[in-house]
Design brief:
The structure holds 2 protein chains of 2 kinds. Chain A is α/β, with parallel strands linked by helices. Chain A is built from 10 helices and 16 strands. The chains are: A alpha/beta, B mainly alpha. At the A-B interface, α6 and α7 of A face α2 of B.
């Protein structure tokens, strides 16, 4: 049972009008570890999360979460899932302590030590009123309220949005702390690649409503490669290379970024007879941008007519 | 323990490799000696704020190189160093480092003489754990 993925979807699809927000999503999130859901704004991350939690009905397809059908989640399933929304909805008139007391009544497994630990970590006074808190403090309070019931599965929808660097670091520290229990799973969406690089075991990449990658972070990093080729003069036109993401031509140099680099890719590049050819190390951010950015050839060489 | 590791996100070097590189350097510069204990995977992960699996991966690589070993129930320790690279591989790795150094120095308008002097001076200052050459054995 513990080898079962905590989240699994099959053909999960949701339309808003004629436009698919999530299209034919087949996602598997293994138990244990940290899973990051990446994608540009409007790529379908929040819609996916809302469907997983049964807050939004799929147009077709479906899935399971902790083994339960997402279309009919019973309360006992919800009690095992922690969900942090982008909006940090709270009652402004309550104090920090009152928020904790209020929330704790809904959860038999409420762990007050965790609640106090996290509000302390974010520097929150128990007597402070919610309406007086900064955005980062509200995020800390919401995180404490979400973590204190010790959820088996924690789903965070863009938790870092609007946080200053100190609050963001506290958030990431809390996530690392949470991995102490190896049977806990964190599923979070984010735009913060430095955070993802620090904490994620796995990533999934959504692009225009479609899942484009779902693998360990290291696998993603290893499969996006960049190679620099030097030429005595203007580089030759770029041939058809399988997996080509980007080709940047400049005077004397051709920079190729591609996915699934292998022997065949190498042979195709060598056939251009460059005077030099070397791998160029690439950052996670660059890999991500070339993966999701405009594909094809860019040239920094002005053509004769333009010059 | 004299180990301080700095993690740089957004680098072309993956985090696990930043850790292995810095532990190796700490051993080479004697900040870590044979028999010194390293933090546990969990402790280092929380200190550096990175995924524990990343630290575990770094430790596995270092153990495979024979630089550290994990003793059951006691922790992770620096071991007697076995040879990590063949001479040829070592030279191959040294090359880009030297090119980088010389390139930077040229940009800062150092002459060859000045660079050579600075290099010699630094070398004599460092109490590093260099392997002695055959002609230095009598020392």
């Amino acid at each position: 049972m513990n080898d079962q993925p905590v989240i699994r979807t099959q053909g999960l699809t949701r339309y808003f009008g004629a436009r698919p927000a999530v299209y034919e999503l087949n996602l598997e999130v293994p138990r244990g570890g940290v899973f990051a859901l990446l994608g540009r704004n409007g790529s379908g991350k929040t819609t996916t999360i809302r469907m997983l939690l049964g807050l939004l009905a799929p147009t077709r397809g479906g899935g399971t979460i902790l083994g339960y059908d997402i279309r009919a989640l019973p309360p006992e399933a919800r009690a095992r899932i922690g969900y942090l929304t982008e909006e940090h909805q709270l009652y402004g008139w309550m104090s920090v302590r009152e928020c904790g007391d209020f929330q704790s009544r809904f959860y038999p497994a409420w762990n007050e030590k965790i609640f106090r630990g996290i509000i302390g970590h974010f520097g929150l006074r128990p007597a402070a009123r919610v309406k007086s808190l900064s955005r980062g403090e509200r995020a800390g309070l919401c995180l404490a309220l979400t973590l204190a019931p010790e959820p088996e599965l924690l789903i965070l929808d863009d938790p870092a949005i609007g946080l200053d660097p100190v609050a963001r670091r506290s958030l990431i520290e809390s996530m690392v702390f949470l991995t102490r229990r190896s049977d806990r799973t964190i599923f979070f969406s984010s735009h913060q690649l430095p955070d993802v690089e620090r904490v994620a075991d796995y990533i999934a990449v959504l692009d225009h409503s479609v899942l484009r990658a779902c693998c360990p972070l290291e696998t993603f990093r290893n499969s996006v490669r960049q190679v620099r080729l030097r030429f005595p003069g203007t580089p030759p036109p770029v041939p058809k290379i399988p997996g080509l993401l980007q080709a940047v031509r400049s005077e004397g140099e051709l920079r190729i970024t591609c996915v699934h680099y292998n022997g065949a890719t190498e042979a195709a590049l060598r056939a251009l007879i460059p005077s030099e050819m070397e791998p160029a190390p690439i950052t996670l951010e660059d890999a991500f941008i070339s993966y999701l950015g405009d594909r094809g050839e860019k040239s920094f060489i002005l053509s004769e007519t333009e010059a | 323990m004299n180990l301080s590791i700095a993690i740089n996100t957004g680098s072309a070097t993956p985090i696990y490799k930043q850790i292995t590189d810095q532990v190796r350097l700490a051993v080479a510069t004697r900040k870590l000696a044979v028999g010194d204990q390293l933090p546990s995977v969990r402790a280092l992960a929380e200190e550096l704020v990175v995924n524990p699996n990343t630290v575990a991966r770094a430790y596995t690589d270092l153990a495979r190189e024979g630089l550290i070993e994990s003793r059951a129930g006691r922790g992770v320790f620096v071991t007697r160093k076995r040879k990590m690279f063949t001479r040829e591989e070592g030279r191959r790795r040294l090359e880009p480092l030297l090119e980088g150094l010389i390139g930077e120095a040229m940009v800062m308008d150092f002459t060859q003489e000045e660079l050579r002097d600075a290099f010699e001076k630094k070398l004599s200052q460092c109490q590093w754990n260099f392997k002695k050459g055959a002609d230095a054995n009598h020392e």
